[in-house]
Amino acid sequence: MDIQDKTALVTGGGTGIGRAVSLKLAERGASVAVNYSRSEAEAEETVRMIAERGGRAIAVQADVSRDDEVRNMVEAIVREFGTVDLLVNNASITRHIQLDDLEAASDDVWDVLYAVNVKGMFHCARAAAPLMKKNGRGAIVNVGSIAGLTGSGSSLPYAVSKAAVHGLTKSLAHALAPEITVSSVAPGAVATRWWEGREEKMMQLTRQMPLERLASPDDIAKLICDVLEQEAMTGQIITADSGQTL
Question: Signal peptide span per the entry (predicted)?
């Protein structure tokens, strides 16, 4: 669907991929609700950047793992912009645990990663879907990860949670059709602040990739916007990883 003059909600929109998506959506003519849980200053900075470029945006707080906060957030967006047409489920967290250290993958780690990474995306989709259906059209992109495809990554619970995001994407694509498209973008390593102080490891990784570069947040943002605009595609998991999994 055409992004121009639509209203978009981007979760975790204050930093990294979320900020890049928020800026790109505004550049394409959308009004943007920039969600944050704790990164208020970063979200407000994203809003300021959009406003400086002539766009419309607000920052809205909600812990996506809490359904009541998500519903209140969507109500606030409706009060400001009238509806929600586009949803980018970007908010995610991880815990860095050696993959073979099963004892460190405690119940608490599993619970918090699933609450944010999986249930959080479901909460947002459930809250926004009635508005999209009322409008007769909507689009959702869930940000997955190649960790959900390979089974490896920053921790075992993180990889499994991202595999669940990919499964959620397919189930929502069935549940919300035909009015709403739902697909997932699965990035590989992305050049965000997470790599600060780990530049040598980043260089080692890029040398192993066919394209010999990490994706930038802007690379992923452009792809997400393109996927939102595709009206003949749903339930797809699209990888963007510079050939990392090739």
Answer: none
